[in-house]
Amino acid sequence: MIDRRLFLAAGAVAAASFTGGCTTLFPAPSRFVSDRISVTVAGSGPDVVLIPGLATSRNVWAGTVAAVPGYRYHLVQVAGFAGAPPLANAQPGPLLESVAAEIERYIVEQGLVRPAVVGHSLGGLLALMTAAAVPSVSKTMVVDMVPFGAMLFKGPDVTAEQAVAIGADARERYFGANRVAATERLYATMIRTDAARPAFVAQALASDADVSGRLFEEVAATDLRPRLKSIRGPVTVLYVSAPNIPVGDQQTDALYRAAYRDLPGARLKRIEGSFHFIMLDQPAAFAQELRAFLR
To answer: pLDDT of 34-86, one tens digit each?
Structure first.
């Protein structure tokens, strides 16, 4: 049987180090129990759900929570990421849909009132899934992600077969025998701020390789574009011109417009001077965008 106490203990450790004592964190109400995610709560005010990306802990949002007070933040962490036990996520079967279902269940069971949902990377995909499934979600922010992950590798015309191959190749490259060196190279292209990078490399390497690899495969192969029409509230997408993708700003802009064509009202904005982790590389710009989004 899965010992859920291990995941709760890991969540408590992450909470203790979340903001160096600047913000008080509380666990989600005890009646919510999950063996796929944990949730801690910080602050008070309107509800905002924050979902981190692949192999990343909830503390990626520490600076954001401190910079944008006045909200009740619900900070999600996926089981198996950043040293947390994988629990049910270690079992065979689809992961992406299962994790999304738990976030959706949390919002409904905890009675969040018209929550905003914000997600980075994998978390952005989960945010879109949640917004499409839960009518009470009032607005959605996606940080550097498209609704079909394989588009970032092959462009808007990528096929389903190519997407599966992309995911399998990436899983072997980043979560296989050469994982340490591959992770260090990858994060050099994803976090521009040298001082911030080592902590998140460490989180990635502390994450369960099987859980991370399987989710990477599913992100590449999952096409959420048909679901976008089910999203009711406004959507903001922040993105960057990635240094590891050999295209210019105009091509990147065109890619994101194509990716979100089925959400014609979506606000798309490219953030300058940042790699993939916008909240780390451009914290002031990100906080400004988040404030405007949440108003």
So the answer is: 999 999 999 999 999 999 999 999 999 999 999 999 999 999 999 999 999 99
Residue 262, domain member (yes or no): yes
Does 207 map to a domain?
A: no
Has residue 175 been placed in a domain?
no
Query: Which tens digits make up the pLDDT trace of 158-177?
Result: 999 999 999 999 999 899 88
**Residue 91 Cα distances to 10, 53, 94, angstroms:** 19, 20, 9
Distances (CA, A) of 82 to 177, 209, 291: 19, 10, 28
Q: How many domains does the chain have?
A: 1
Q: What is the CA angle 49-113-38, rounded to 5? A: 35
Collapsing DSSP to helix, strand or coil, 139 comes out as strand
43-61 burial: b if 16+ Cβ within 10 Å, else e: beebbbbbbbbbbbbbbbb
By residue range, what is the domain housing residue 71?
37-146+225-294
Question: In this structure, are strands 72-78 and 139-143 parallel, antiparallel, or unpaired?
Answer: unpaired
What are φ and ψ of residue 208, in 5° steps?
A: -65, 120
